[in-house]
Amino acid sequence: MAEIVIIYTSETGMTKQYAKWISQELGSGCLILEEVTAEEFLHADLIVFGSGVRGGRMRKLKSFHYKLKKSGWTGPVVYFATGGAPYDEQTVSEIIASSFHLSEGRSVPFFYFESGLNFEDMMGWSRAVMKLYRFIIEKRKGKSETDIGTIQALSESYDHSSPDYIRPLIKDVQKRTGA
């Protein structure tokens, strides 16, 4: 049986919840990026890395890649990101383009899961940035439908997380590992 390790970083707990659901489904270990050492995942046949999205890109992806490089590990990685925006192909394409430096024709195994916003658990700086962003959009003249939806989404905490969203990732990992 393939050894799969789930590594995640989570500011408000939403990515952590997805990492736990994935870990349970795959019967895998689940490690926090900030606490993981290279030795803890060197035995893995495949790593699943997840983080939240901030400013259209995956948070702490550079830290994860630094730890991989430092360890010398070169196996396959499947990525997932969580965010407050509903799933759509354009959102996913923009996150991939902003997060990864891919050469033409190359792709990365990537999955996006809608989660939400949790202002109560958000760090002060992050909360302030979200409120400032909402304020800027509120002051726009001729707001679009997207602007109105964004204002509403940034008004209070919400959680749209669902274990159903992880199904495609689970299937992909099982296919890659022959499970």
List the helices and strands and how they pair.
Layout: E1 4-8, H1 14-26, E2 29-32, H2 38-41, E3 46-54, E4 57-58, H3 61-71, E5 77-83, H4 89-99, E6 110-114, E7 116-117, H5 124-139, H6 145-153, E8 158-159, H7 167-177
Parallel strand pairs: 1-2, 1-3, 3-5, 5-6
Antiparallel strand pairs: 3-4, 7-8
Q: What is the helix fraction of residues, given as a range?
A: 40-55%
The largest sheet, given as strand count, sense and whether it forms a barrel, is: 6 strands, mixed
Provide the succession of SSEs: EHEHEEHEHEEHHEH
- The CATH superfamily of the largest domain appears as Flavodoxin domain
Number of domains: 2
The count of DSSP E runs of length 2 or more, i.e. the number of strands, is 8
Overall geometry: elongated
Q: Structural class of the helix and strand makeup? A: alpha/beta
Task: Determine the mean pLDDT.
Answer: 84
CATH structural fold name of the largest domain: Rossmann fold
Strand content: 15-25%
Assign the CATH architecture of the largest domain. Answer: 3-Layer(aba) Sandwich
For the record, give the distance between the C-alpha atoms at the N and C termini, rounded to a whole number: 7 Å
Rg is: 17 Å
Q: Which CATH first-tier class of the largest domain would you pick?
A: Alpha Beta
Number of DSSP helical runs: 7
Low-confidence parts, pLDDT < 50 over ≥5 residues?
none
Domain Flavodoxin-like: 4-179
GO molecular function, one term: FMN binding
Protein name: Flavodoxin domain-containing protein
